[in-house]
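User: Round two. Same drill as before: sequence, then structure, for each protein.

Assistant: Same drill it is. First protein:
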Amino acid sequence: MAKHGKKYAEATKLIDSTKAYSPQEAIELAKKAAYTQFDETVELHLRMGVDPRDAEQQVRGVALLPHGLGKEVRVLVFAQGEAVRIAEAAGADSVGGDEFIKKIEGGWLDFDTAIATPDMMGKVGRLGKILGRRGLMPNPKSGTVVAANDLSRAIGEARQGRVEFRLDRSAIIHVPLGKVSFEDDKLMGNLTAVMEAVMKAKPAGAKGQYVKTASLATTMGPGIRLDLKPVLSLTSG
């Protein structure tokens, strides 16, 4: 088991492990507990009350973060014909077909989001094992398989701060909310957008308590337990 250093130990002293914090308190505390030299990411972790083995209880969706993620998002678009010109005009970093499929099969992964037009999915499908486990596989359900005339919107959303979330094998959802350097209200706005998306993604087959626990943490920092009631009541309205 990995041992934490002195700085981590000091950070844990700031947090009362017996307390459930309001979202505002947790954001302030997470920023105080961040101790590294780099601008850590603030992450939300949700333990869900669904069965990850049940196909009817899968939780998956997309959240558009109003204040972005605080990093440059590299966009790859699988396209051909007129769609190539549309994607390039919209600012995609990489656009093409067979040449990028071969590069990815050879180990190239210099992108953060992959988008594809429907006519490319027959070819892109063979990348499922490579891209799927990294959460990079284009998928209609996550809005990353789009018609050519919708590419500009999809690329713009990816640049803005579009995050995908899905249930893992432990029934947990992990979502980045932004950087420690963000102002508190921007992190709160992003948290609100994520919670709205997660609640909207509730599957019909879900039974009992949908969200069991929630916590915030920075990349290297300790977890901070959230008070569920105010978290579940977050809305942007």
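Second protein:
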Amino acid sequence: MKEWKEIKTQEDIEELYDAYGGFHDGCLIHAVFQSGTSVDEKLTMCFGNAEEYTLRVTFERQWRPKTLEMNFIGLRQFHLVGAEDNYPPDLFEAYITFAEGLLPGEPKRLIVWSDVPFDPKNLHNGIEEPSDTYIIANRLQWRLAE
């Protein structure tokens, strides 16, 4: 398995797009969330810090390289769209950008991944079709799984 690469700059985003064909003909196949929160042997709630909120997402596509893993660290929000009538779940492309001023405090800049371009300052999470999948986090790492 290859080493994780971290997205820190626009050039890093472009490197990911180039390596994975802009997510064209891809689909999200797997997502695993961890909060860092647990209950110990004395039944005491132990809370994780922001960096322990992680979401690992796996994509596959109809091209090589086929499989991509993305690790969102310091997860802030995840909106996953499930089955939709008359709308297939495949990706034509994906959008990754940096957003500032979404939350008070640190970090000032968050990273946003979405399946369509959208403004993260105007989020709408109602149940409607079609809808958008997006992920907002403090940091993003990625690696090709092949």
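Residues 5-144 form one domain.

User: Perfect.
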